[in-house]
Write a structure and sequence with these properties.
Layout (H helix, E strand, L loop, with lengths): L2 H7 L18 H30 L5 H13 L1 H12 L3 H24 L8 H14 L4 H16 L5
Amino acid sequence: MHWADRQTLAPPLQSAPMRKGTYVFDNNGSFLLAMLEFFIFFAWFMSLFWIFGDLFRSKDLGGVAKTLWTLFLIVLPILGMLIYLIARGGGMTERALTAQAESQKRQDAYIRSVATPNGGKASAADEIASAKALLDSGAVTATEYEQLKASALAKSTAPSGA
């Protein structure tokens, strides 16, 4: 049998049916474009969260102004966001830092009220007793105990109302 005869005896190869229509990721370019679009959408969404957070954190705006800004951001989101950043963007950092400082003060006050008896106002006797317990447990040395004791006594004799 000749090689040409073998080709004619082989069953014909069937190709996959051609699909009609477009696909989202039919090549690398469309995938990269979709990734870019997702990134831009995510960045816009995060910016919108920051702006709404700043808007509702702001104490210099009343309820009506906050409502108008909110409606403006919902009806015309991109334009509203750009105008908000131009008009009020300079104070966003100060408002965020102020809110963070207030939160830190509240947290410190809460920790002090929970960690010590009498809401953080321990008497000298209480401080000396806790220092003695630390000395007995071996957590502090005798010299550190004397320093803690002197500090507690100095606090109790110092005038309160500075």
